[in-house]
What does this fold into?
Amino acid sequence: MSQNSIAVDPVSSVQTKMKREVASASRTDRIPDSARVTSVTHWTGSLFSFKVERPASLRFRSGEFVMLGLMGDPNPKTGKSNPLLRAYSIASPAWEEELEFYSIKVPDGPLTSKLQHLSPGDSIILRPRPVGTLILDALLPGKRLWLLATGTGIAPFASVIRDPETYEKFDSVVLMHTCREVKELEYGKQLVAEVMEHEFLAEIVTDRLIYYPSTTREVSRNQGRITDSLSSSSFYKSLHVDPLNAESDRCMICGSLGFNEDIQALLQDKGLVEGSGNDPGTYVVEKAFVE
It folds into this structure.
């Protein structure tokens, strides 16, 4: 052996290589940012909600969303799996120990076709970095807050109406939720009932939270689109409230793309201006996702 040669222990070399391979495999195979499912509720054949354990480090504001999902199927060639992620509004209030999500079921959807089969004890991917525009800080001070939603768009407002800060900033809150059929309103109906009977929230929301569910297809007590209601004097009379106005009303919008656009046009005609976290306005709309 020459003086410049370095002796290599073959056993040590193999052990080092094995450690690197194991470390690499653990990074590839483990589920990143996992959260354990604690309960699942199927509301209809196309709607369900589920709760997961809240990561200890997660802090969020009512109305924000996170990216969550599952690992996809392994690639036939490489054997590796990539995460399937989608934006989901956090339906639970900021003080809750668990995180709740409300979702549609899409039979052929890459993610929801798998999520709908979740069971308690399963793990999902949850990126603990909440963001979103449906936050109180994005609105200028006002007296009345309108929460306008279609379908699963009620999810962020499930958080907002259970946040005591909402009632510190506004004298009253109007939650309008519309779906095609009556059975699709059940999640919102039970949500509001629980808020009205909650040990601490009941005293805060009594006579200050107005809930107006409606349908667009099935005949019901309140039938019609939210845009039509907000343009009708009879609607305001039925609720015994003053018509929506830009001076004292603030609005949050979450629904289908068409709904969001129609509501924005209506609000802008009434003089409301879109806001954001950096530039508060008189209404906000979530653009990160639609139904």
Q: What stands out?
A: Confidence is low (pLDDT under 50) at residues 1-8, 10-30. Residues 136-285 form a domain with the Rossmann fold fold (CATH 3.40.50.80).
